[in-house]
Amino acid sequence: VQVVESGGGLTQPGGSLRLSCVTSGFTFSTYTMGWFRQAPGKERERVARISWSGNKIIDADSVTGRFTISRDNAKNTLYLQMKSLKPEDTALYYCAKARRPTHWAQYASDFDVWGEGTQVTVSS
Fold first, then answer.
1. CA within 13 Å, CB half, 3
2. Burial code of 90-99, b = ≥16 C-beta within 10 A, e = fewer?
3. Mean pLDDT of residues grouped by 10 in the chain (124 residues)?
4. What is the largest CA-CA distance in the chain?
5. Which of 36, 35, 53, 46 is nearest to 101 (CA)?
6. Gap between the Cα atoms of 11 and 116, Å rounded
7. How remote is the C-alpha of 73 from its chain's centroid?
8. Backbone angles phi and psi of 62, in degrees to 5
9. Cα Rg for the chain, rounded, in angstroms?
10. Are residues 3 and 23 in contact, defined by beta-carbon separation less than 8 angstroms?
11. How many CB atoms lie within 10 A of CB 115?
């Protein structure tokens, strides 16, 4: 079971990035997936989640209206579209798989497989 993030990088304030998380080794279409992030010196933050059936929630109030989570079950891939990026969005972004199938995972402890992260840096 593996999840691998990509798409991070350096961008200026106001810029956009799309993160991808390619998964393997499990039936992707039956699991809730999530994006989390951790900035230096700060606790890990839950960003957004999407259920196996496509129900979405943005957990981080600071990204509401700017970030969109989506999934392509045919490609076993999770996405995070980020727009109007701000310096405070700078963090290591992680993709995570829920521990149980067809379960609306809520907390970090509900996720059991994590990627190594992709760095997003927003700076002028």
1. 28
2. bbbbbbbbbe
3. 98 98 98 97 97 95 97 98 98 98 94 98 97
4. 42
5. 53
6. 20
7. 15
8. -70, -15
9. 13
10. yes
11. 20
Q: Which residues contact 109 (CB under 8 A, 6 or more apart)?
A: none
Angle at 50 between CA 47 and CA 52, to 5 degrees: 155
> Is residue 107 classed exposed, middle or buried when 0-12, 13-18 and 19+ CB atoms within 10 A define those classes?
exposed
| pLDDT for 60 | 93
Give the strand order in the sheet containing 17-24: 2-6, 17-24, 77-82, 67-72
> Taking the alpha carbons of 105, 69, 52, 6 in that order, is the dihedral positive or negative?
negative
DSSP the chain: -EEEEE--EEE-TT--EEEEEEEESS-GGGS-EEEEEE-TTS--EEEEEE-TT--EEE--GGGTTTEEEEEETTTTEEEEEE-S--GGG-EEEEEEEESSTT----SGGGEEEE---EEEEE--
